[in-house]
Amino acid sequence: MTAMAFEPLRLGVNIDHVATVRNARGGIHPDPIRAALVAAEAGADGITAHLREDRRHIRDDDIARLKAAIPIPLNFEMAATSEMVAIALRHRPHAACIVPERREERTTEGGLDAAGQMAMLRPIVGELSAAGIRVSLFIAPDPRQLDAAAALGAPVVELHTGTYCEAYEESAEAFAAESRRIAEAARHGAALGLEIHAGHGLSYETVGPVAALPMVRELNIGHFLIGEAIFRGLDGAIREMRRAMEAARAAAEARA
Predict the structure, then answer these.
(1) Which pLDDT score, from 0 to 100, does residue 1 have?
(2) Is 94 annotated as a binding residue?
(3) How far apart are CA 117 and CA 105, in angstroms?
(4) What integer pLDDT is reported at residue 101 of this predicted model?
């Protein structure tokens, strides 16, 4: 049996909640663009920023400043709306990740229903792709959603790891079951020709099993890193996450 190749695992750092802290008081501090530059220096491979319709954290001028300032790719998280499509086309980020969005939620909850919204999503995926923007769909680790993403022509999916991370706090059995679910979804998506990313809620304790999957090419992590930065600084928090990711990847490759 031929061993599966382990390609380098990228880390995208989400800087939304630096903006959340800034907006809690108003003004310009802390500046999410400064956080993005620190992240790049600490080893992040990309920066993720979600411009919500209600602008509760990242603001329009943040996107313009990020695009101008950062030396690494920008992943623009967006709802599937005409307003956000227009903004993405204006700024031309490296990538656009389409996420579900509800005004009452504290942060993005659950995955996009790609299977149930194909008619609405198809022209958006097509328009962004035609502009040279790498399109990703943020979906649950569900074969039906993966099949829909492939049918829509999205080259990338980001598997929602929120339930998986919650299971870590519940029990070893629940965590093992969710780990298997993530692994099976990653295998299914890769077999469809999709590039597999993952994110939401990942911490030092939960990143290992996902980082160990050879099909996963990128992890997007934000809230945990911004919280951890209070205790060890953003640079230190990101470097520790990279160490955890790379250790899990190397151990899995050694076992393969």
Answers:
(1) 37
(2) no
(3) 20
(4) 80
Report yes or no: 139 and 119 within 8 Å, Cβ to Cβ: no
Q: What is the DSSP string of 220-255?
A: EE-HHHHHHHHHH-HHHHHHHHHHHHHHHHHHHHHH
Task: Estimate the crossing angle of helix 16-25 against helix 32-42, to 10 degrees.
Answer: 150
Structural domain includes residue 200: yes
Q: Is the dihedral of CA 57, 134, 93, 5 positive or negative?
A: positive
Eight-class DSSP state of 203: -
Quote the CA–CA distance of 1 and 5 in Å, as a whole number: 12
Distances (CA, A) of 183 to 69, 141, 142, 173, 176: 36, 9, 11, 15, 11
Residue 105: the pLDDT is 47
**CATH number, domain with residue 146:** 3.20.20.70
110 annotated to a ligand binding site: no
Domain around 78: 10-255
Active site residues: 50, 77, 200
Residue 79 lies in a domain: yes
Q: Give the global pTM.
A: 0.94
Tokens read off for 21 = 């802290």
Residue 27 among known ligand-binding residues = no
Element (H, E) at 218: strand 216-221
**How many structural domains comprise the chain?**
1
Residues of the chain falling short of pLDDT 50: 1-2, 105-108
Residue 71: strand pairing partners: none
Q: Give bridge partners of residue 135 from the DSSP assignment.
A: 96
H-run or E-run covering 91: helix 82-91
Any idea what DSSP says for residue 9? P
* Length, in residues, of the chain: 256
**Cα torsion at 202, 207, 209, 212 (round to 10°)?**
130
